[in-house]
Sequence to fold (411 residues):
Amino acid sequence: MNTTHIAVIAGLLVGVTIGSWTHAAAVEPTSQSKIPDVSQVAPKPPMGWNSWNHFAGRVTDADIRSAADFLVSTGMRDAGYVYVNIDDTWQGKRDAHGVLHSNERFPDMKALSDYVHTKGLKFGIYSSPGARTCAGYEGSLGHEVDDARMYAAWGVDFLKYDLCSLREDMKKAKAEHPDDADVTKNMMIAAYRKMGDALRGSGRTIVYSLCQYGVDQPWTWGPSVGASLWRTTGDISDSYARMSKIGFGQAGLARFAGAGHWNDPDMLEIGNGKMSEDEYRTHMSLWALLAAPLLAGNDLSKMGEADRRILTNKDAIGIDQDALGKQGDRLYQDGDVDVWTRPLSGGRVAVGLFNRGANAREISIELAKVGFAGGARLRDVWKEKDLGPHSGTFTDTVPTHGVALLIVGSP
Ligand code: GAL
Fold:
């Protein structure tokens, strides 16, 4: 037993008693005054790295240390990628005192967290409001306060909280209360609120990231449970079809995001090898226009230069992290052409001209349509080039599944 476990057990002995969640624990109505103010916890979309997309259930302590090392040596940390997040499968067993231990692949979480912090990075972890995580490991149901305290003792800065086995309990509750239209939604919100409260009571600032695949519009209630971000979709995979379905499917959600509260269309697949460079540029461009959290999910130890340049492009990151904190949206779609805009600070606008078709093609945009009837100064993000003043219509040739990403400002 290490010092962390002793501290956590001491916490339990001073009288924290937690019962399992039951349907009877109804959701309290959310009044404006009850909404926790977490606007300063993640004032900009969080950036970092997460183990799941590449390492999945094989992840080890050594992989996390290596990711931390490579975030520094590749320049990713200095570009803004600071969270190092362990996803599912770190958990071991809960002992008789209710303390959850990490498994043999993670011999000492506090030491790992310390290592990550010495690199100028932040440390993230994963759990579930259910009894089991999606990979079948121990979840936090009935142990929310114990677990939040342990995270604080470990120095955790970010928690991804994934619905997983709570869905089974929700199905049972629905079967028992078929006439209650909101039974599953209320149950889910109560479970997420419980951990949100526990995190805020833990004595440490921990970014709270909801993962429940966009069920029941979390963008409408995420802030009320103390979340800084919430997944809006099912899982991404390293394919253009899936990435573009998710990314282009985000139209209409812009008004639910803002400084401190972010829609999360899932983590990045850039560098995992199954999309072309143009497709990865589309991925990065869409996520930047969407003010999405940027959590890289590749094996940083094997990252090639093209992927590194995409992930660290200063202008793309600048769009994502823009001070105005306004998410972008679709301007129009016309066949294979999809045009998205995002208002930026300083009266500028980011414009993405996407070619979703199978052949390269010209795409034109009337500058008046993006608010610059009198002409504008353009910068091409991926060519890393100022294009100078333009008026009327701007036209570019865009490769298949590619994008021209522009920053448009006053002339
Ligand atoms: C999924 C989640 C993924 C990953 C996985 C781990 O539910 O959406 O991002 O966390 O579980 O088991």
